[in-house]
Design goal:
Two copies of one chain form a homodimer. The first copy, chain A, has 584 residues and is α/β, with parallel strands linked by helices. Chain A folds into two domains: 289 residues, 4-Layer Sandwich (Nitrilase/N-carbamoyl-D-aminoacid amidohydrolase); 198 residues, Rossmann fold, CATH 3.40.50.620. The first copy, chain A, has 20 helices and 20 strands. Chain A is elongated and about 85 Å long. The interface between A and B is large, with 94 and 93 residues.
């Protein structure tokens, strides 16, 4: 038989469209002579639905969606949805339905409910209480949902799951495993996923079909790359990265009739009147190549995340403040890749502190991208604020206040353009500055989506260079890449006057935020104690800014945003045991 | 014996200060001849510590805090802390320690881990695996933590807890129950808590000592009101609301020696060599009176929440934009109650659309509050933006864009005052406008704390009237209360031009957000279908603004903020089955 992997891009809450998409994919799969199509986790509802799950009407609409699928699906399907147990205080389950001949033949609930990082599944769902393979065309198929297969020893230990769903399933002798997932992208995760499935297929001596979501939903980007492995952990089929795909795998039953006698009572119960054939199924498919390069993947993820955020929120065009610097240049280039140059507007907003080369760089970028470009000098507003605040600030020195005012004027201009024309403002801040608070709340932090807010500064450079390399020309002006970073909020200002060199800052940031290392451990990596302490203190005390930041696309294993939940009014400081000497 | 209830205000992460506070309270309790002092849930760490719990160093510091307590406590104590099981992948427990004679004699873990609304305890903690009473001065005491006692039938059903910790404890024949809590304030919750404990004391025929936290921590406000009930559910002692308190209860053992023989093996094991006396203990204490009025409580909560946010974040002074309207007037009055008139600055920022009476009202408010007051007309910046945007906006009508610019100029001025002088900007928006998006992102939404963002507009009026009533004079100008609400962003603008009357809006808001009613149910309450649909649509589509809102103090059962987790890029719309006719 032929099984289709329906790697689709759903929209959270758009149940009608999600159902129509599945019907369409099922029709295409039928045309290709597939016998069964498999869709990702919560495909009916969209993932993650978050607190929409607390609305009865949402759950109901999702059940009606399954009903429509059941009535109209061209071929049998395995479909992720939200199941309900009305008897038990309306308990919800993250579930998959096996639909065949216009009926729901079986439902498997998710067992392991991730409740860490960006996941809150314990907030919504109850775990599965049974694990029973389904029988389809004489093949026993064990169904599981996303986290259910993340049961390598080290992970189980860390997450304290008491149950191993694959073990429970494998005791019931399936011949094939299917896992439906909504596994968000992070740099390098495709490798981790494949290693995991390789380990599980070998451990259980069973092939596995792994169907992942694709598409951006708020901060999360799902990268697709659904795949199939045989019972030896060999890759049989692989879907596209960062786009929808319909992948096929041929499943051949090499029946050994002698296995008949080994069918035990439990199995007979599962599939009454049928005989399970014990021999492994044989799989054949095609493998889509994709890059394992982190820069290539990151760029693709951000392009998809930006495109989907805009599309799913109903925006056609984006507006971006272009400073001539690297962050806004990369953000603009990503926007153009996402929605096309005709849908991106750049605005340079020079102050008297802006150098001519910055304005030139911004213009050059806009020209190389082919986007609409405006220059709006902000001096009139700077003067107005000076006038308005003269009395209140009498006798006080100029300081960071006036720098922030410039950033806030720019933010207000971009928001005005957004209000007047309906464009989405894309914020341009990177992870390094968001971490240490080197950014202005309500200023450069303005925007509906923060495209590169999970990219440390050095990674922004990597992406910039790759964009040029890929284009075979300097889309991003060379001088933008080469010049030392500056916010240009006062004469001759450089980022490095206020911050450690980015190569140092980013190293400490990675160790502290993503790897959760303690100060002493970070110091042992070779960073100066006083710099480590200073960076950590800055990260901790700038939580208030991040709480009001625009949603940012997550591409690392630990991003600020929905998976980072720090209190603001708190006094804990991580201190290195090595005393800091001198100024940072 | 005498038991002290140490109702303390801890700071998240300030372990040194929290420990010192407990040592101080224990000394005071010893002076009053108490034998045992009980502190709230996670008193060592502060509550809620959120992702600080993911830091090993934080857990370690908390354990060192317990160690210092152990060494220095003047009397035995029951103390909330984070326990660890290093053998099991560093599993964490929300725990309480029974400290006696310089040693931790027993540890009881929390069993029921709330993972709903603002709570994420499944993200961090493992549940208890044993429930054993402690023996203290011949009394068997059953310990539980917060949620562990929230096991009325209806709640159990809803939350799907499989275990009733009090039942497990009561099977081991305690004579007294102690619950340590960090139970956040919501209007009317003090009544729910007392009813719950009344039910549990009666059900188990056991008295209970309930020790709650007090103080504000980010969005959550803990109201104290620790209390003691006897086995008949009668109130024996009650602590203060919204302030620290040390409450005493006398526990008299009416020993019946014949109970000796009934001591079974299990009990003998728990307390080897001791004999549990079966007779009920007798309790005596004093009852602190407090208001049950929702307005009085709400005001007290907001005052405490504002004071603590400022203190715990290290701010001495606040700055508030005074429009002459009710929201900013109430916010300023709360600020004055929180930190004193000498620590509050008001700034009126009139535009050409501001009426003279608004400026007069703002001035009158500032005078009646006795706060520093400035007037900064914003016309210079309005003109500057007009000039700067003239080319870009050529040929386009004036619209909401220019209104938002005014709001953003005001936001930038307040932030400038904050940057220059170090004051905290208090945002003045209410729940009604935050719900329907009748507010400007980066404009009137600017601020470090949104004081009244969980108060529907009608409640803001209630609080305003009560402030005047309590003061016996018009602290808030009568004309501010009497005039129809207006944002004054264009000539003759009134809120009611854009919104349903607040009495309608607030009713629908309450039904939809707090009561989670469906559109049809709300319509059945008597609201017009088209108005219901319009309000619901507005609430749904303004999620993007709320995602970037300042943290707001939670006083209702369901506030926007940490307990409200809606996706932005989503398409689910709750529709009334009754068709809407005509314009809303």
């Amino acid at each position: 038989m032929k099984i289709a992997l329906g790697q689709i891009n759903t929209t959270v809450g758009d149940i009608t469209a999600n159902v129509e998409k599945m019907l369409d994919f099922a029709n295409r799969a039928k045309t290709a002579k597939a016998d069964l199509i498999v869709f990702p986790e919560l495909a009916v509802a969209g993932y993650p639905p978050l607190d929409l799950l607390l609305k009865d009407s949402f759950i109901q609409a999702n059940l009606e969606g399954v009903h429509r699928l059941k009535e109209r699906l061209a071929i049998p399907a395995i479909v992720g949805f939200v199941d309900i147990n009305p008897g038990k205080g309306k308990h919800l389950y993250n579930a998959c339905a096996f639909i065949e001949d216009g009926a729901i033949k079986a439902v498997q609930h998710k067992t392991l409910l991730p409740t860490y990082d960006v996941f809150d599944e314990d907030r919504y769902f109850q775990p599965a209480s049974q694990h029973t393979p389904i029988l389809f065309k004489d093949v026993n198929i064990g169904l599981s949902i996303c986290e259910d297969i993340w049961t390598r020893g080290d992970i189980l230990e860390k997450l304290s799951y008491q149950i191993d769903p694959l073990q429970l399933l494998s005791e019931k002798k399936p011949q094939l495993l299917i896992n439906i997932s909504a596994s968000p992208f992070a740099v390098g995760k495709e490798h981790i996923r494949q290693e995991l499935v390789k380990e599980q297929t070998r451990r259980h001596k069973l092939p596995m079909i792994y169907v992942n979501s694709v598409g951006g939903n708020d901060q999360l980007i799902f990268d697709g790359r659904s795949f199939v492995m045989n019972e030896r952990g060999e890759l049989i089929a692989m879907g596209k990265a960062f786009e929808e795909d319909l992948i096929f795998v041929d499943v051949e039953l090499a029946a050994h009739e002698e296995s008949f006698k080994s069918a035990n009572e439990a199995e007979a119960k599962i599939a009454p009147g049928k005989v399970r054939k014990e021999t492994a199924v044989k799989l054949t498919g095609t493998i889509e190549e994709f890059s394992a390069d982190r820069t290539v993947n990151t760029l693709a993820a951000l392009v998809l995340g930006t495109r989907d955020y805009m599309r799913k929120c109903g925006f056609q065009k984006a507006v971006i403040g272009l400073s001539g610097g690297i962050d806004s240049a990369v953000t603009a280039a990503i926007a153009v890749k996402s929605v096309g140059k005709e849908n991106v507007m750049g605005i340079a907003m020079p102050s008297p502190f802006s150098s001519q080369h910055s304005i030139d760089d911004a213009r050059e970028l806009a020209e190389s991208l082919g986007i609409e470009f405006h220059i709006i000098p902000i001096e009139p507003a700077m003067k107005a604020y000076d006038t308005m605040l003269a009395d209140l600030f009498q006798g006080r020195e100029r300081d960071v206040t006036e720098e922030n005012i410039q950033a806030r004027i720019r933010g207000a201009i971009l928001m005005a353009a957004s209000n007047k024309m309906g464009h989405l403002v894309l914020a341009t801040g990177n992870k390094s500055e968001l971490a240490v608070g080197y950014c202005t709340l309500y200023g450069d932090m303005c925007g509906g989506l923060a495209v590169i807010s999970d990219l440390p500064k050095m990674m922004v450079y990597d992406v910039a260079r790759y964009i040029n390399e890929e284009a075979g020309k300097a889309i991003i002006p060379v001088s933008t890449i080469d010049k030392p970073p500056s916010a240009e909020l006062r004469p001759n200002q450089l980022d490095q006057d206020s911050l450690p060199p980015y190569v140092i800052l980013d190293g400490i940031l990675h160790a502290y935020v993503e790897q959760r290392r303690k100060p002493d451990e970070i110091i042992r990596l070779g960073y100066r104690p006083e710099v480590v302490q200073d960076v950590i203190n800055r990260i901790d005390r700038n939580e208030y800014k991040r709480k009001q930041a625009a949603p940012g696309l997550k591409v690392s294993s630990r991003a600020f945003g929905m998976g980072w939940r720090m209190p603001i009014a708190q006094r804990f400081q991580e201190k290195a045991s090595v005393p800091a000497t001198g100024k940072p």
